[in-house]
Write a structure and sequence with these properties.
- By secondary structure, the chain is of the alpha/beta class.
- Helices cover 17% and strands 19% of the residues.
- The protein contains 4 helices and 12 strands, in the order βββββαββββββαβαα.
- The strands form 4 sheets. Strands 3-7-6-11-5-12 form a 6-stranded mixed sheet. Strands 1-2 form a two-stranded antiparallel ribbon. Strands 4-8 form a two-stranded antiparallel ribbon.
- 40% of the residues are buried.
Length: 233
């Protein structure tokens, strides 16, 4: 993930009047115990996930074209680096982090960033920015010759590091999210799911070598079929 030092107020949202419902097959597994489950992911009319904890961030602004959502960018984050759990990530994205609480956080003083979503090691989802607005997650970036990826992307932060294996439930939840986003925002396809390192090569490395791209694409294809983009890796 990357830094940006400007601030804008978070626009207010109107109450949801309708939602998009996506019911996942019960044959899919959700944790290490391989328990069967059924997942429901819904995006409300206000562009917030109904199943996510809502924690609005001031670090966002309006998109030039709210319909121009063609990328889903996967990041990782852990605060302090390499430590999981706690509230530091949520505090960071809402400008409430005490950067003096740990020397490893000192460099984050004054940094203003956000993501649309954060998925922790347990698979719990927190949303910071509504999808039709621009989160500050990509920084200096480009995709297929088009710069400024924040303008046309959705950013998802997974709690993790480049080296540590991600939890099975995180892949499960990320695939659920991706499938629902693709159904809601038709310009987004499977080929538009990328890592931060792909849009900022040489500057960023996340989600890292530990991320299992084939697994994510298989999980997505199970939910959407093969019509929304080819397997890319």
């Amino acid at each position: 993930m990357l830094v940006a030092r400007k601030q804008h107020a978070t626009p207010d949202c109107e109450p949801a009047k309708q939602s998009l419902r996506l019911v996942m097959p019960t044959c899919l597994r959700h944790d290490a115990a391989d328990q069967l489950h059924e997942t429901q992911v819904r995006i409300g009319a206000d562009h917030w996930l109904e199943s996510a904890a809502r924690l609005p961030s001031p670090n966002c602004d309006e998109r030039t074209d709210p319909d121009d959502i063609v990328l889903l960018v996967v990041h990782n984050i852990s605060l302090p680096p390499g430590r999981f759990g706690g509230e530091h990530v949520k505090q960071f994205f809402t400008n409430c982090l005490d950067c003096g609480a740990d020397e490893a956080l000192a460099d984050l003083e004054g940094v203003r960033v956000s993501a649309h979503l954060f998925v922790d090691r347990r698979g719990a989802i927190t949303q910071f920015v509504r999808f039709d607005h621009r989160a500050w997650h990509a920084g200096q970036s480009s995709y297929r010759g088009r710069s400024g990826c924040n303008d046309y992307s959705i950013g998802v932060e997974l709690e993790g590091t480049d080296e540590a294996s991600y939890e099975p439930i995180q892949y499960q939840v990320l695939a659920d999210i991706a499938a629902c986003l693709m159904r809601r925002y038709p310009r987004l396809s499977l080929s538009g799911i990328v890592g931060h390192q792909e849009i900022a090569p040489g500057r960023k490395t996340d989600p890292g070598a530990s991320f299992d791209w084939p697994r994510l694409y298989r999980d997505c294809l199970q939910r959407i079929g093969g019509a929304r983009g080819a397997h890319r890796r």
